[in-house]
Predict the 3D structure of the following.
Amino acid sequence: MTFNAQTPATVLLADDHALVRRGVRLIIDGEPDLTVVAEAGDGAEALEQARTHQPDLAILDISMPRMTGLQAARELSRDRPNMPILILTMHDNEEFFFEALKVGAAGYVLKSVADRDLIDGCRAALRGRPFLYHGAVNALIRNYLDQVARGDTPTESRITPREEEILKLVAEGRSSREIADLLVISPKTVERHRANLLAKLGLRDRVELTRYAIRTGLIQA
């Protein structure tokens, strides 16, 4: 994929902080081969903007309301499998990094060094190459060696995408009826999913589910 100043690559930028979006946009629009064509304040809006503007690249924060960047990345990977996704986050966290790779992200850039790494990450993703933040290679090697030592194969996420949706809404304080209305399912189905979540994660109640959601970046404290 080749772009230049006459035909710059179009970018969707999603972050729930307007000031962050403004700063990142300045970095991107300062390059002749890149241009931001759409912004979003949460993951759900990012999906809408991606369908409307058909950008060449999506840049997503992880911790956003309504739908996280990882949830949005999963949906975008299904909707537009040829569009690269770059995660731009404050989380220097191996768990988030591996989850980002699992949902289809082409790269992972830390906000703390965005001025140094973001443009390289964008260009690498648009060329179909992975972009890993400093320390990610060590994390990949450690993970691989640990799995080999245990004789394991790569594991899938412990919870399903639907359970993740319900976990996020429960942690946001939504009632079973509200969740059922939002997801167009029955309250009884919501309760069943919640019971499955508690059993899978070894948790006892809504408070512990909320703590888990904060720890894994589904919601912000």
Q: What stands out?
A: The CA atoms of residues 158 and 200 lie 7 Å apart. The beta strands are 9-14, 34-40, 57-60, 85-89, 107-110. The two ends are 40 Å apart (CA to CA). The mean pLDDT is 85.
